[in-house]
Amino acid sequence: MSIGWTLLGTFGQLMLAVFLFMLVAFSGGGLVNGGHFRRAQVRVLDVSAMVLPGTCALSAAIVLFLHWQGAGATSYAWYALPLGATALYLIYFRILVHQSRGGR
């Protein structure tokens, strides 16, 4: 693993964390502002605003740790962790949008 690619990937993860925070804050806020949802549903959106950026920081920390331990290039696969979490958020968001439209 090259230190240059590791640092570039880590920087990219931190930028992605900011983007994901804004994505959740604006999409969730806009949806909740215009609809009526249960408290638990809103809580999931609130928690997602911290969990999604947290997965970026976690994946960056894991890759940095593995780099220091001398791991191979397959360690870069940890950078995909936020993609899975984002996919789960978008599925949940889509379900809430469908619910807010009354099943249409």
Q: How would you characterize the overall build of this protein?
A:
By secondary structure, the chain is mostly helical. The protein has 3 helices and no strands. The protein starts with a helix and ends with a helix.
List the helices and strands and how they pair.
Layout: H1 3-33, H2 39-68, H3 81-100
Helix pairs in contact: 1-2, 1-3, 2-3
Largest sheet: none
What do the pLDDT scores average to? 93
> Which spans have pLDDT < 50 for at least 5 consecutive residues?
none
- By secondary-structure content and strand pairing, the structural class works out as mainly alpha
Keywords: Membrane, Transmembrane, Transmembrane helix
Transmembrane segments: 12-32, 44-70, 76-97
Name the descriptors:
104 residues; mainly alpha; transmembrane; membrane; transmembrane helix
Briefly say what this structure is.
The protein has 104 residues and is mostly helical. Helices cover 78% and strands 0% of the residues.
